[in-house]
Design goal:
Blueprint lengths: L19 E14 L2 E14 L3 E5 L6 H8 L7 E6 L2 E2 L5 H11 E5 L10 H11 L4 H14 L15 H13 L5 E5 L7 H18 L2 E5 L3 H4 L4 E6 L2 E7 L6 H4 L6 H9 L1
Parallel strand pairs: 3-8, 3-9, 6-7, 7-8
Antiparallel strand pairs: 1-2, 1-4, 4-5, 9-10
Helix pairs in contact: 3-4, 3-5, 4-5, 5-6
């Protein structure tokens, strides 16, 4: 995809899909590093509809992490427009962006970012504190979120008492607790073994298919991208390819074909 002409960087008057939850128009992001400028995004235009499951792919330096920062209202475009649920948030203040993040967005990262001396329940509750929710409702929401990821029985465990996969489930529960419209997952399986990675993808697929949650997943792993419904390939700050995922993998069908960790341990002892 060639870089957009300057004219396309102005607010478009063309009709767009009413279901577009995310819309970028001619988005550029330039980082000024003293005497050097890094053009991280170069005229990116795209739409993501409500209820989609999209994988964002690309090598290091392709622009995918910058895109995620903009989609997550962690950064603003240098030029162009970002419409989130119909509102142009491109030039929102830091306070306004924080408010949007708290109300509409849930984040999951490669590093679980859990507080070590805090229980799973308390870790999940954290975003609700900033949302001004009452203590009683905070606990109720946190318990519901843990149940959604299959950890209802681990509420009072500390991160050190949980496996890597369980810690990532807690992180997903934390991302869900404020009932976001969009879940942004940045390399969520990067620190996990193969089977646990598929278990995490199963949770994301179920959230997308059964609850209609819009999921945007950044990954450099082609096999993980196969669990999404649509793939965006970035290179040199440009969206090079936007295609449906062919031969999509369904995690609940893949899991029975994978050995458990206990099976691997047993094989190693023989």
């Amino acid at each position: 995809m060639d870089e957009q002409a300057t004219a396309t960087e102005e607010p478009s008057t063309q009709a767009h899909s009413d279901a577009a939850l995310i819309r970028l128009e001619g988005v550029h992001k330039i980082y000024d590093l003293g005497e050097v400028q890094v053009h991280a995004l170069r005229g990116v235009s795209l739409e993501i509809l409500a209820g989609e499951f999209v994988a964002v792919m690309g090598a290091s330096g392709s622009g995918k992490s910058t895109l995620m920062n903009i989609l997550g209202c962690l950064d603003r475009p240098t030029r162009g427009h970002y419409y989130l649920d119909g509102t142009d948030v491109s030039q929102f203040s830091k306070v306004e962006l924080a408010r949007i993040r708290n109300r509409k967005l849930g984040f999951v990262f490669q590093q679980f970012n859990l507080l070590a001396r805090t229980s799973a329940l308390e870790n999940v509750e954290l975003p609700t504190i900033y949302a001004g929710i009452t203590p009683q409702e905070r606990e109720q929401r946190a318990r519901e979120s843990l149940a959604r990821v299959g950890l209802a029985g681990r509420a009072h465990h500390f991160p050190s008492q949980l496996s890597g996969g369980q810690q990532q489930r807690v992180a997903i529960a934390r991302a869900l607790v404020n009932r976001p419209t969009i879940l942004l997952a940045d390399e969520p399986t990067g620190n996990l073994d193969s089977r646990t990675s598929v278990e995490i993808m199963d949770i994301l697929q179920r959230l997308n298919e059964e609850e209609g949650l819009t999921v945007v997943l950044v990954t450099h792993e082609q096999d993980i991208a196969q669990y999404a419904k649509r793939a965006l390939d970035f290179r040199d700050g440009k969206l090079r390819r936007d295609t449906p995922v062919r031969d999509r993998l369904i995690a609940r069908e893949v899991l029975p074909t994978l050995p458990s960790l206990q099976d691997d341990d047993a094989a190693g002892e023989t």
